[in-house]
Specification:
The chain is mainly alpha-helical and 397 residues long. It has three domains: 51 residues, no CATH class; 115 residues, Tyrosine recombinase, N-terminal domain (DNA polymerase, domain 1, Orthogonal Bundle), CATH 1.10.150; 191 residues, Intergrase catalytic core (hpI Integrase, Chain A, Orthogonal Bundle). The protein contains 15 helices and eight strands. β2 and β3 form a beta hairpin. α8 runs parallel beside α12. It is elongated and about 95 Å long. The model has no long low-confidence stretch (mean pLDDT 87).
């Protein structure tokens, strides 16, 4: 009897075909040191069905997960695409900032990597989310972890609210935010997110023109990076010494009296402002030396790219003065204003300058139609006295 040659058996339909015909008569592939099978070669000689099955299960198998059936239910790919499409509509309408959209986009990328694009949403169980939380906890501190858990829950809440699934996803008892104790311990470890008066005076002394003006607006009015990026010239009344400017993040109205030092610095910065690179930025108060916005975000269908020149410039200044430590950035000026202004004993006026939303159930904010300029001025005067104490006072000794 003539021995059958190996070459007479089934072959790959093409050299780059990812599967091979196993001796058992099935299409196979070795994944993570284990053979996986994708149907009989006799029933599928060209490997078309086997290839489709491999592509369907590929993400799960490569990640070491048990493949789940994808027919007859919502898979992660469709959920994430639907969720990001809904958020993109809010971005286009101006209801969502590019930075916020970028954060949500990255959350979806992490979910795709961790859970797999072909995984059935209804097949997700508590162990999946517990493993996801463990992965995130290794990379981030409690604050970032809590924020990310909230975003993940939002993705799956959207699936139920949009009627993409029949019942809410159950995350299990392990997918919870860090405890308040863990948050407090982490905050204590990082140290206060604020500057002392002598540190701010050193920053102002060493700052170039535009950065000096922005630092002053940060400590005078509690402005953050986004506030300064979008600050229009029309919001400034330097002659009267006021800025009237709704907070871009929330749209809450704000009005703040400006110190003489702030007026002088802003006027100098505007006077030396470079030509705008984009015509639509001609009305902005601050532009980088290249004529661009200080913080930008480019959003495409496949990626989100951030450029925060203000954060970089401010960090360079902190490092130059040996003041830098993790967690301490430009936004700490807003923390500083809130902290020091609170000692003025007029929290209502402080909140108005900061642009804080009223607390749930605070009916006084509903009925309050305005706050007098004298109260607003008293708050910023208190911060001014802390930053530049007069000789002979308790602060100035």
């Amino acid at each position: 009897m003539t021995k059958k040659r190996k070459s007479d058996g089934p072959r790959k339909p093409r050299p780059d075909f990812p599967l091979f015909p196993h001796a058992t008569g099935r299409w196979a592939k070795k994944v993570r040191q284990k053979l996986r099978y994708f149907g009989k070669v006799a029933d599928d000689p060209k490997g078309e069905k086997a290839l489709a099955l491999w592509l369907d299960q590929k993400d799960d198998l490569l990640a070491g997960r048990t493949p789940r059936k994808t027919q007859g239910g919502l898979i992660m790919r469709d959920l994430l695409n639907a969720y990001l499409t809904a958020k993109r509509h809010r971005l286009d309408s101006g209801e969502l900032s590019p930075r916020s959209f970028g954060d949500l986009y990255q959350t979806c990328q992490r979910l795709a990597k961790q859970l797999g694009l072909t995984r059935l949403v209804e097949d997700l169980v508590a162990d999946d989310f517990q493993e996801l939380r463990a992965t995130m906890a290794k990379a981030w501190g409690p604050v970032r972890l809590a924020d990310e858990i909230q975003k993940v829950r939002g993705v799956f809440r959207y699936a139920y609210d949009a009627n993409l699934i029949d019942k809410p996803v159950r995350f299990g008892p392990g997918f919870t935010k860090p405890s308040q104790q863990a948050m407090r311990l982490n905050r204590a470890k990082q140290g206060p997110k604020m500057f002392e008066a002598e540190q701010i005076r050193a920053l102002l002394k060493a700052s170039p023109v535009q950065l000096k003006a922005m630092i002053l607006l940060g400590v005078n009015c509690g402005f953050g990076n986004g506030d300064l990026t979008h600050l229009p010239l029309s919001a400034l009344d330097l002659k009267a010494g006021w800025v009237t400017y709704p907070r871009p993040k929330t749209g809450i109205p704000r009005r703040c009296p400006l110190w003489p030092e702030t007026v002088a610095a802003v006027a100098q910065a505007i006077g030396s402002r470079p030509k705008p690179f984009d015509k639509e930025d001609a009305g902005l108060a601050f532009l980088t030396p290249l004529g661009r916005r200080w913080t930008t975000a480019v959003v495409t269908d496949t990626t989100v790219w951030h450029n925060d020149a203000l954060t970089r410039e401010f960090r360079r200044l902190l490092e130059q003065l040996k003041l830098y430590r993790p967690g301490l950035g430009f936004y700490a000026l807003r923390h500083t204003f809130e902290t020091v202004a609170g000692d003025s004993k007029d929290q209502v006026a402080v909140n108005a300058i900061m642009g804080h939303a009223p607390a749930v159930g605070d009916m006084s904010a509903v009925y309050r139609e305005r706050i007098s300029d004298d109260r607003l001025r008293a708050v910023v005067d208190h911060v001014h006295g802390w930053l530049w104490p007069v000789a002979g006072t308790k602060e100035g000794k």
